[in-house]
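Feature request, filed as a ticket because there's no other form

It would be nice if the structure record came with a short human-readable summary line next to the tokens. Right now we just get the raw output. Example of a typical job, pasted below so the devs can see what we mean:
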Amino acid sequence: MAQRWPVREFAWHPHQGNYPGWLWTATTGSFVGYESLLERDRVLLADFDPAVVGIVSQPFWISGRDEACGEVRRRHAPDYLLSLRDGCHVVVGVKPAADDEARPPFIPARRQDSADRGRSVNASR
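Raw output as currently delivered:
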């Protein structure tokens, strides 16, 4: 899978609360962006997973209506798209366990595993 640049830019400014950066991965043979140390750790897990053959940061926009806010239209860029050796793809949103409800309400989700500490949606090709 060829590396693509994120659909949106990461915020970079002094004294921000998160730690964005770029991590070189053997899986892609290139740098993959992250917006927090938790996201960096998730990229490391994916890079060491033999089932993962591609990692794309901020791969696309998801949009939908937020019924909880009176049908307000929202959009969200998932954190990563992982391509698996078997041809499937996994969309990954990385959030701390304490932020379980921080997921946009229009995105269906399921818990993956405790090491992931995030939410994922499986999508076939």
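Something like this underneath would help us a lot:
The two ends are 14 Å apart (CA to CA).
Residues 108-125 have pLDDT under 50 and may be disordered.
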